[in-house]
Amino acid sequence: MDQLSAQTRISDAAIRSVMDRLRAEHSEFEIDTGVADQWELRLYYGSLSATLDDESVLIRVAATDETCLSYMK
């Protein structure tokens, strides 16, 4: 089945600590990508992938339908 997706980049000097807390809160859903500063979460409504770069993070979310995609966003 095709996936719908959305992405955004968030820039903030404290983004690394924010993303570390997000990962800690959802660690049971984390998929090890084997790449530093890159990870993926597989949640009930879809997936989230994040890539840290200096003081920003690129976040991509994907889901099977519009409702689930809106929950992921």
CATH architecture field? 2-Layer Sandwich
Spatial order of strands in the largest sheet: 1-5-4-3-2
CATH class: Alpha Beta
Q: Pairing-aware structural class of the strands and helices?
A: alpha+beta
Compute the separation of the termini in Å: 20 Å
Low-confidence stretches: none
Helix amount: 10-25%
The number of domains is 1
- Report the biggest beta sheet as strand number plus sense, adding barrel if it closes: 5 strands, antiparallel
CATH topology: TATA-Binding Protein
DSSP helical segment count: 2
Please state the average pLDDT score: 93
Radius of gyration, taken over Cα atoms and rounded to an integer in Å: 12 Å
Q: Indicate the proportion of strand residues.
A: 35-45%
User: Can you tell me the overall shape?
Assistant: globular
Assembly state of the chains shown = single chain
Order of helices and strands: EHEEEEH
The total strand number stands at: 5
